[in-house]
Design goal:
By secondary structure, this protein is mostly beta strands. It has four helices and 53 strands.
Length: about 700
């Protein structure tokens, strides 16, 4: 039987066949459903929960006539759901139980019932169309009893099937996941696991064999624990159980599987070697638990032999008095003394560094910056090879390609020429010097240039021996990958420049051991221009000095005069108003970036000059009629008057014909039938003097013939 069918069965009558009848009540009427030779019949398509009545009558054929026997007494049944099968209850977490079951054919949903004892009163929790239900808000460790009933809606009324048998569930903690046990050093073992939701704490149990007796070692609210004071190289075994207090009683969850570990002579981790102060390398590493000390080893070449240089109790050490620019290699191992015997860890991986040169490189770059603007001396304008103190220092009187001499000269001033930086006048010899010492890095490598490095250039498409250039790295912007330099022989001067690392012009770096990227200088704004904007204003414009720059505008009334700041702006233009018409003004500009609370200024631009004068008249028109040709234009701000000039050809000689205050003039002295060309300029009178603007484009007009 199922929710929409009833199965009938009866005993056989010898030689008989059967007719099956059904009615909606015991007293009928009964309607025949089927003739059958079987001793069973399933009545389908029924309404769930409704009672049906059945009778069966036997018959035999006599010729073509059915001869019936006695009819059975009426039996009744109603179609209902079967109980859900495979019902399971499992802890979902410390306060939840998840129920699951198999589907019941025809069920529209399932009602879930709960009790707190096997014989207790079951109360409904809720209904679900799903095949699972999670009961939340439970008490950890308590046993709960559940039954499931399927149902189907008949109109607005639920018709229930049989309930499942009672099943039990207990909400408990899951065992912690991710449990690990590992050596934390010579005398300790580190334990770690993932948090269990709802756990108030964790109990840690320890044994000295995996199958041994586990004793309670510690309680913790953390998901980490370190067992200190264990014996070196001895194995220990651990389990973790989460717990929660319910009604004053500690309720435990499931325990982890066993994890074993032993305290080992751990190799120090995270070793690094970095340049310290001048001629110094600082080596650091992670401390090893329980270590008595550390041994620091060094070699000077990659193929060399390591030698012990220091024994330390701290997890860092400085190696001093080193050769500037040389490469050094380091390893470290830890040790612990037990009963007078020294136990060693393995050695760390190899690390390498060059001694610090930041102090001397900072001084060198300060000297290089002090040379900005130095220009080679030439005795005549067309002379190619000029005199510089840098080439003279090298022993060359006049030398056009003095960029390398400048680098060498700067190195000499701080005492590192021929040790940290070569003495070179030919760019390729300087590059070869670095290559022979393993201190050259190609621009295509991952090397990050540092302040004080030497930079090498080669013009794209030039031969190997031509188009070479060199300079000093002042700073590097790793995000934009822009290199800021100070170079000799840039326009015959010492100048700052910037280079895109990927431009193709930069080929490599001579590595000098600095660790500072340098402070990105603020470049001076470029292409400063000044032009009259009106009779009393001048407009300045310039190219950007870079992202985040602010600009200060300075003005004077003579190019060698005192310049006063007139504006601060983040724009790339500025209009200076309220000026005196006809007076020449001189302007300079500088940029700055704000770094922390400090303003980092660029150099000033060269000066530019302009004077304010009236604008050019616009919309000049010439219209002829019988009275002459009328010339008109738009008014110009600040104009005292306008001068009208005329010519008989567009490119002819223009002659002044009228000075007017109005914005139109009728030329009555023009000949009919002749084309005339007119142009207009405005003027402003200042201190009795006319200050003129520019002429307008010519406008053509013709007086008609009468």
């Amino acid at each position: 039987m199922r929710y929409d069918s009833i199965k009938l069965t009866w005993s056989a009558v010898t030689g008989a066949r059967y007719a099956v009848y059904r009615a909606a009540s015991a007293n009928g009427p009964y309607t025949r459903l089927v003739f059958t030779t079987s001793t069973s019949y399933t009545s389908t398509g029924l309404a769930t929960g409704r009672t049906y009545y059945y009778k069966v009558r036997s018959y035999r054929w006599a010729g073509s006539t059915r001869v019936y026997g006695n009819t059975t007494a009426a039996v009744s049944a109603k179609p209902v759901f079967s109980a859900p099968g495979n019902v399971k209850a499992a802890s979902a977490r410390y306060d939840q139980i998840k129920l699951t079951w198999n589907a019941v054919p025809g069920a529209g949903g399932y009602s879930v019932y709960r009790a707190t004892s096997s014989a207790g009163a079951y109360t409904p929790l809720g209904s679900t169309p799903s095949l699972s239900y999670t009961n939340t808000g439970l008490t950890t460790g308590q046993t709960y009893y559940y039954k499931i009933k399927p149902y189907r809606m008949a109109g607005k009324t639920p018709v229930y099937g049989n309930a499942s048998g009672a099943i039990t569930g207990v909400p408990v903690f899951a065992a912690p996941t991710g449990f690990t046990a590992s050596s934390g050093g010579f005398d300790r073992i580190n334990l770690a696991w993932n948090a269990v939701p709802g756990a108030e704490g964790y109990s840690v149990y320890r044994a000295t064999s995996s199958a041994g007796a586990y004793t309670h070692w510690a309680d913790t609210t953390s998901t980490r624990a370190t067992n200190y004071g264990v014996t070196l190289n001895k194995a220990y075994y651990y389990k973790i159980k989460p717990y929660r207090t319910a009604g004053g009683t500690r309720v435990y969850g499931n325990g982890t599987s066993v994890k074993g570990a032993a305290a080992k002579a751990t190799v120090p981790g995270s070793i690094s070697a970095k340049a310290g102060s001048d001629r110094e390398i600082v080596v650091t590493w992670s401390a090893v638990g329980g270590a008595t000390g550390y041994e620091l080893y060094r070699k000077k070449t990659s193929a060399g032999t390591y030698a012990l240089i220091r024994e330390l109790t701290a997890n860092c050490g400085a190696d001093t008095g080193l050769e500037m620019g040389a490469q050094y290699y380091y390893k470290v191992r830890a040790f612990r003394v037990v009963d007078g015997r020294r136990y060693y860890s393995g050695c760390t991986r190899e690390v390498t560094a060059r001694p610090g040169a930041n102090g001397v490189l900072d001084r060198m770059m300060t000297i290089a910056a002090g040379e900005l603007g130095y220009e080679e001396i030439k005795t005549s304008p067309g002379q190619e090879d000029g005199w510089t103190k840098y080439a003279i220092d090298y022993g060359i009187d006049k030398y056009s390609a003095w960029c390398a001499c400048f680098v060498s000269w700067c190195a000499k001033q701080v005492g590192v020429r021929d040790t940290l930086i070569p003495k070179y006048a030919w760019v390729l010899s300087g590059k070869a010097w670095y290559q022979s010492r393993g201190r050259y890095q190609s621009v295509s490598s991952s090397y990050v240039p540092r302040k004080g490095d030497v930079i090498f250039f080669h013009s794209v498409g030039a031969s190997t021996t031509s188009g070479n250039h060199t300079g000093l790295v002042e700073a590097y912007d790793p995000e934009a990958q822009i290199i800021y330099t100070i170079e000799g022989n840039i326009g015959d001067k010492v100048n700052r420049d910037t280079h895109d690392r990927h431009s193709g012009y930069v080929v490599g770096f001579g590595v000098n051991g600095g660790y500072s990227l340098g402070e990105v200088p603020t470049p001076a704004p470029r292409n400063l221009q000044a032009a009259s904007a009106s009779y009393d204003s001048i407009r300045l414009s310039w190219a950007s000095a870079g992202t985040g720059c602010t600009y200060e505008v300075y003005r004077a009334t003579s190019f060698q005069g005192t310049y006063s700041r007139v504006a601060t702006t983040t724009s790339l233009n500025y209009t200076n108003t309220g000026l005196k018409t006809g007076t020449t003004y001189y302007y300079k500009l500088r940029a700055y970036r704000t770094v922390g609370s400090q303003k980092k200024y660029s150099a000033y631009t060269s000066y530019v000059s302009a004077y304010a004068r009236p604008a050019t008249p616009s919309n000049v028109r010439a219209a002829g009629d019988e009275s002459g040709i009328t010339v008109s234009w738009n008014a110009v701000a600040g104009a005292t008057g306008y001068e009208v000039s005329r010519a008989t050809a567009a490119n002819g000689t223009f002659t002044l014909i009228k000075d007017v205050a109005a914005i139109s003039y009728t030329d009555a002295a023009c000949a009919p039938g002749t084309a005339y060309y007119y142009r207009v300029r405005a003027y402003h009178t200042e201190d009795g003097k006319k200050i003129y603007g520019s002429y307008s484009p010519a406008a053509a007009g013709q007086r008609p013939e009468s």
